[in-house]
Amino acid sequence: MALLRLLAIRLLTTLVTLAGVAVIVFFVIRVVPGNPIAMMLPPGATEDDIARLSALYGLDQPLLTQFGIWVAGVLQGDFGTSITTRQPVLDLVLGRLPATLELAIMALVMAVILGGAAALTGTRFRGGRTEGAIDVANGMALSVPDFLWGLVLILLFGVLMPVFHISGRVSPALDLPFTTDFYLFESLLRLRFDLWADIVAHMVLPALALAIPLAAIIGQLLKQSLKETMNLDYVTLARTKGYGETRVILREALRNAALPTLTLVGVQFTFLIGGTVIIERLFSYEGLGNMAIDAVINRDLPLIQGIVLLFALIFTVVNLIVDLLYAVLNPRLRHA
Amino acid sequence: MSFLSIRNLSVRLKKGPPLLRRVSLDVQAGEVRGLVGESGAGKSMIGKAVLGILPPSVEITGGEILLDGTDLLRLPPKDRRRRIGASCALIPQDPLTALNPSHRIGPQITDRLVDILGWPRSAAEARARDLLAEVQIPEPDRVLRAYPHELSGGMRQRILIASAFAAEPKLIVADEPTTALDVTVQKQILKLIAGMQARHGTALLFVTHDLGVVSKVCQNLSVLYSGMVVEDSAVTDFFAAPRHPYSRALLAATPKYTDPAAGLTPVPDEVIAAVRAEVAAFDAGGIA
Ligand SMILES: Nc1ncnc2c1ncn2[C@@H]1O[C@H](COP(=O)(O)OP(=O)(O)OP(=O)(O)O)[C@@H](O)[C@H]1O
Ligand SMILES: [Mg+2]
């Protein structure tokens, strides 16, 4: 019941958010200077050529009319045609989305594992040198942004010790039998572990670059929360029953301590998705972010609009998932 | 032989002042011993030392805690934990914070039986059901599946009592088990603990502020001031003629149930000064 209501409310706010984003992105990219048609045509094109092409893309109409046409199209599932590639925006965007989703989720998994391990180890050996070392590592991880971690990782594991790939999503020489764009996932389903290994070797470094700052945040926050929980009465009571420190942390404290961290991880995960734009560029990874940068450089207005809308949709879905998870993990909300 | 025998136990804040000063006390099998003293005297600290849950900010500087003849302080941590878990239990002060909010009630009663003592799950669950009946909780099956927040404070304290008795411990430490409860519930809970203690023959270390409660449920008591045991007497002797001036003053400061308005004298300043001097003399005389 409570979950259904939450879903209904969220659906409504999502629609409002998306409408707002649509308005903003549409007008903002038209205010910034730069004419997409002029960028398309070879040097020496006449005013006449420009005018004809502008008319073809509807760019000669008043802004409000353009907006109306675009919104009417979007509502019918037509996001327009990319000016640079002349392909439907929806196809382009959906073709790249899986790559970015796989990268972001792998980064999230890495961040949770690394951050969780740091928090648990720090709590287990709290007050000692181990905790100090973890705090220092966390601080370092936090004070360097993801794209700099990307450069560091490229230097370390791409150049000095070339164990991972630093460019692309999969080795170009490989024959890909895939029917979807979820390469990582599909290679597993098809039991093509050779392809899977190649894809992972491409994803490790960009995913790690995205994961490190988030891992540090999770590590710090969860450790703080765990340490506070470890002083609560029910944890003390569990100790008297004969449980050792590690079991007390995992059995009694972890779940309650994870709840406050979870909300923040949701917010931070949306930042991580934002980070894919630069990281994908850095690693020439063929995802949405990389495409977004091309679209901006080429002033490909319909494509920019499509990508931004999709990012906004992803953000709201992530927040919804976090809220649902929170409700599921917290018995107090589940029964409300 | 006493089941619990604390010998000259000294505890202090790490690199700080002493919190327990050569505390000695015994609890025979099946005996109920009261532990009284003003707030901050160190009553809970004694219970925590016995159960191995002293806060990390304090350290034991000397003494022994003999449980069934074995000094807990000499055991490796794991053996100590297991031994305490198998033969001792705690009834905590605040039932609202002593149950894990994200676990159901059932596992919180059976966990020690299954995880530490190796009972089969079904036997542990049957035991939990019997215990809930014994602490007079209606619909035990529903309660076992409930989460703590669905139950009242009195119910939760009954559950914690049931959980404490689950493994038939030899010794239970009850740290002000009724202080956090509604006055109307306090009496019922007290009666419940006393009844369970008598039926199961469990030794009880009963921490309280309330001498009235001591007179009803305890056979012996230790009076604590500033981490020092100033009197150790049988309850009947104590109420007839307390030996230490501080005990006398404490007794005079306790409201009488027969005549609540009369005889309410706070502990006089000179008694406090005298017992402080005693503590100071002890500290000057060198620490154990
Ligand atoms: N976690 C802790 N860290 C440091 N000092 C503590 C801690 N807990 C208690 N103390 C100190 O130890 C002393 C004894 O505390 P204790 O809790 O045993 O008192 P008490 O007799 O149980 O009092 P109350 O009746 O208020 O429960 C007090 O001076 C208290 O300030
Ligand atoms: Mg206390």
UniProtKB/TrEMBL annotation, chain A:
This protein's record includes keyword Membrane: yes
TM helices/strands, residue ranges: 7-32, 99-120, 147-167, 199-222, 257-283, 303-329
Protein name from the UniProt record: ABC transporter permease
Organism expressing this protein natively: Paragemmobacter kunshanensis
Mode of membrane association: Multi-pass membrane protein
Keyword presence, Transmembrane helix: yes
Family label: Belongs to the binding-protein-dependent transport system permease family.
PROSITE patterns: ABC_TM1 (PS50928)
Highest classification ranks of the organism: Bacteria, Pseudomonadati, Pseudomonadota, Alphaproteobacteria, Rhodobacterales
Compartments where located: Cell membrane
TrEMBL record, chain B:
Sequence similarity: Belongs to the ABC transporter superfamily.
Key words, A-Z: ATP-binding, Cell inner membrane, Cell membrane, Membrane, Nucleotide-binding, Translocase, Transport
Membrane topology designation: Peripheral membrane protein
Record-given protein name: ABC transporter ATP-binding protein
The keyword Cell division appears for this protein: no
Residue ranges of every copy of the ABC transporter domain listed in the record: 4-251
Gene3D superfamilies the UniProt entry points to: P-loop containing nucleotide triphosphate hydrolases
Localization: Cell inner membrane
